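pipeline stage [seq->struct] | target=nicotinate-nucleotide diphosphorylase (carboxylating) | organism=Flavobacterium ichthyis | residues=285
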Amino acid sequence: MITEAQFKHELKLIIENGIREDVGDGDHSSLACIPAEATGKAKLLVKDEGVIAGVEFAKMIFKYVDKSLEIETLIEDGSEVKHGDIVFFVRGSSQSILKSERLVLNAMQRMSAIATKTKFFANLLEGTATKVLDTRKTTPGIRAIEKWAVKIGGGENHRFALYDMVMLKDNHIDFAGGITQAIAKTNQYLAENNLDLKIIVEARNLDEVTEILQSENVFRILLDNFDYETTRKAVAMIGDKCLTESSGNINEKTIRNYADCGVNYISSGALTHSVYNMDLSLKAV
């Protein structure tokens, strides 16, 4: 999986690019009418309900823009919030607060929406041993904060990208000439390149599950678009030989039923690609 150092680097890149994109050669609105020495205070106001996420990321943004800004946190990441709640206060240079404002809001609104949806799915799995996973169906350029939001909401991260885990899906299998060939070539590639990466293999039916089980070094089998009965059969076949994951158009109406089939994980792209931003605002006080 991605290391902590790699993850922090991704966050740094998001902040640098976000400020570059938004500020350019200067926040001329603020520069034009607010003295450089002016100081102020603002609050992060919730105008919605759900799970707040991005508080710690907001602190990183403020400190990147101006190390002298002071943040007083009232509500931590992962907490339930409602309309009217104040999450934090920020004090310091008025120009710096305004320069940070849009990136802070864009990030927190998106992250809070993802955390809220993830928490909803995680609650549906309560009482089972099944965990909800995200996918790579993320917004280009801000994957790190979206996956961070999933964890804040009580989910778990799948692989971060193409480089930290091997996932042999239908196209890989077909291009490689079949499941057995794809797994064998992958094991050889990992050995030759001294790579310690877990292997996940997608199965489209029970025959493919049987074939996968005949190969070595498979960490998890992805049961793609299986119905409930077939999922239960696959889980029984696999036993403790490797972990299991269900995926494919699973929603809030079906996720519990798949969990009851005994799979270890359920992955859902909807956690990150189908959410509506939480309504938040930064208001001067």
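stage status: PASS
auto-comment: The chain has eleven helices and twelve strands. The first helix runs from residue 4 to 23.
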